[in-house]
TrEMBL record:
<feature type="binding site">
    <location>
        <position position="113"/>
    </location>
    <ligand>
        <name>Zn(2+)</name>
    </ligand>
</feature>
<dbReference type="GO" id="GO:0008270">
    <property type="term" value="F:zinc ion binding"/>
</dbReference>
<dbReference type="InterPro" id="IPR001412">
    <property type="entry name" value="aa-tRNA-synth_I_CS"/>
</dbReference>
<dbReference type="InterPro" id="IPR045462">
    <property type="entry name" value="aa-tRNA-synth_I_cd-bd"/>
</dbReference>
<feature type="binding site">
    <location>
        <position position="111"/>
    </location>
    <ligand>
        <name>Zn(2+)</name>
    </ligand>
</feature>
<dbReference type="GO" id="GO:0006424">
    <property type="term" value="P:glutamyl-tRNA aminoacylation"/>
</dbReference>
<keyword id="KW-0648">Protein biosynthesis</keyword>
<dbReference type="InterPro" id="IPR014729">
    <property type="entry name" value="Rossmann-like_a/b/a_fold"/>
</dbReference>
<keyword id="KW-0479">Metal-binding</keyword>
<feature type="short sequence motif" description="'HIGH' region">
    <location>
        <begin position="14"/>
        <end position="24"/>
    </location>
</feature>
<dbReference type="GO" id="GO:0005829">
    <property type="term" value="C:cytosol"/>
</dbReference>
<keyword id="KW-0862">Zinc</keyword>
<feature type="binding site">
    <location>
        <position position="260"/>
    </location>
    <ligand>
        <name>ATP</name>
    </ligand>
</feature>
<comment type="similarity">
    <text>Belongs to the class-I aminoacyl-tRNA synthetase family. Glutamate--tRNA ligase type 1 subfamily.</text>
</comment>
<dbReference type="InterPro" id="IPR033910">
    <property type="entry name" value="GluRS_core"/>
</dbReference>
<keyword id="KW-0436">Ligase</keyword>
<feature type="binding site">
    <location>
        <position position="139"/>
    </location>
    <ligand>
        <name>Zn(2+)</name>
    </ligand>
</feature>
């Protein structure tokens, strides 16, 4: 049984066979939050024992995704640690030594059965309606001298674990599923080392988890069926069995396992679609866990202090993109303009090529942020919202609707002429939205033209559209000379 008084050590152990997907990211978040909530250690281990499907590129993608989510690891790639190395391909010697030890102690044995032999045994078991159709233990009692002779003669072999006679049922005390019982008769003497000298997943994982002192294994419940085999390995190694917590699958709205068909699934895609890492982590944390069943905004520090396994549900979680959007918008709405400017707006504008780092005063940027932030749902919206401000009088695009509804109406050329004079009269020293609004406000009465028409015309002239952010702020931001030049250009389209 596990010893719950030991300092918590948990690991996230992705296989770099692809990008980091929502399911893996949620597993990483649960492990990270559990470690943080218990003053424990969060370990990142790269399970790259499948050489045909693992790539360094995928490892880098996973590390980038972890960093983007802000899930810092205490031991693992880049940061090291006293239980390293933290990639399975660099730990082969340890697996070999552990397997040799089990072999020496009679807890593992070589098996020479060919694939044809195994297939024939399985067919025979089926034919006689034997409920157990696994490995028939042909080599379990081979004479060790004979085994040695065959090995020396170069015959290929695998190493199998010896499930002890009379082991009885294997009961997993799962922190999420409760006690799960597996019939020991169903456990065959499974392979721990392949004939090519590589360890199997169930063996390498346990050797690592034991060597790294992992106290809690939190992972997807697709691994629940592997767990009794892994328990056999712990027992053979004489290592304490950790607490297991198998977390549910993530389903799409149609009740099917989340996949490409449901839209974005990799962390990278969500980053590129413009979600905030804090909002993304908050949303994923709620897939199967909740602090009280209703709170939806759980800031990172709250997650890191309150996460517990007893509030993890065993029911599948449903991925709801609308809720993610909502949480993302909440995070944006609760940011200060300063934070929004530095963390989001400036990087987005620089990336979009609209400005360079260091362009514009702090005051100008914060004014821009004050109108952009409330209109931003995804980070990718920023450049679009700002484009009218960064345009010039020459480059501004006039939407057809803005021209037909705002400009091409009788009397609008006069309205624009009056607007230009009013702006001209605003002293440079008090060029701000308030003064600008004040100067324009008097025009409807002065010209005896409906307010709606006056402002529609000015908005169309300065912004090229009819739905831009507050007009006074936009005019302030583009500056007097540019605002006047825009109005001059628009007068050419006005009647
Ligand atoms: N490398 C395994 C996976 O990605 C890890 C499973 C485990 O956590 O034991 O599914």
């Amino acid at each position: 049984m596990s010893d719950s008084t030991k300092p918590v050590r948990v690991r996230f152990a992705p296989s770099p066979t692809g990008k980091l997907h929502v399911g893996g990211a949620r597993t990483a978040i649960f492990n990270w939050a559990f470690a943080r909530a218990n003053n424990g250690t969060f370990i990142l281990r790269i399970d790259d024992t499948d050489p045909t499907r693992s790539t360094d590129e995928n490892t880098q993608i996973i590390l980038r995704a972890m960093r983007w989510m802000g899930l810092d690891w205490d031991e693992g790639p880049d940061v090291g640690g006293e239980f390293g190395p933290y990639a399975q391909t660099e730990r082969l010697d340890m697996y070999k030594a552990a397997a040799q030890r089990l072999w020496d102690e009679g807890k593992a044995y070589p098996c020479f059965c060919t694939p044809e032999q195994l297939a024939a045994d399985r067919e025979a078991a089926k034919a006689r309606k034997d409920p157990f159709q696994g490995y028939q233990r042909r080599c379990r009692d081979l004479d060790p001298d004979e085994a040695r002779r065959r090995i020396d003669a170069g015959e290929p072999y695998v190493l199998r674990i010896k499930v002890p006679d009379g082991r009885g049922d294997v009961v997993i005390h799962d922190a999420v599923h409760g006690d799960v019982t597996f019939d020991a008769k169903e456990l065959d003497d499974f392979v721990i080392f392949r004939s090519d000298g590589t360890p199997t997943y169930n063996f390498a994982t346990v050797v690592d988890d034991a060597a790294m002192g992992i106290t809690h294994v939190i992972r997807g419940d697709d691994h629940l069926s592997n767990t009794p085999r892994q328990v056999m390995v712990y027992e053979a190694l004489g290592a304490p069995v950790p607490v297991f917590a198998h977390i549910s699958m993530i389903l799409g709205a149609d009740g099917k396992k989340l996949s490409k068909r449901h839209g974005a699934t990799s962390v990278e895609e969500f980053r590129d679609e413009g979600y905030l890492p804090d909002a993304f982590v908050n949303y994923l944390a709620l897939l199967g866990w909740s602090p009280d069943g209703e709170t939806t905004i759980v800031p990172r520090d709250v997650l890191a202090s309150t996460f517990s396994l007893d509030r993890v549900s065993k029911n599948p979680a449903t991925f709801d993109p609308a809720k993610l959007d909502w949480i993302n918008a909440e995070y944006l709405a609760n940011m200060s303009d300063d934070e929004f400017t530095d963390k989001i707006m400036v990087p987005e504008l620089v990336e979009a090529g609209l400005m360079d780092e260091g362009d514009h005063t702090r005051e100008w940027l914060c004014t821009l942020a004050s109108v952009v932030r409330p209109r931003t749902k995804h980070l990718g919206d920023v450049a679009g919202i700002c484009s009218i401000v960064f345009a010039t009088a020459e480059s501004l695009t006039y939407e057809d609707k803005a021209v037909s509804k705002g400009l091409a109406k009788e009397g609008m050329a006069d309205v624009l002429a009056a607007a230009a004079s009013a702006l001209e009269a605003v002293p440079d020293g008090s060029w701000n939205a308030e003064a600008i609004d004040g100067a324009l406000e008097v025009l409807p009465e002065q010209l005896d033209v409906k307010k709606r028409l006056v402002f529609q015309a000015i908005r169309a002239a300065v912004c090229g559209n009819l739905v831009s952010p507050p007009l006074g702020v936009v005019i302030e931001l583009v500056g007097k000379a540019d605002a006047l030049a825009r109005i001059k250009r628009a007068r050419g389209m006005a009647l």
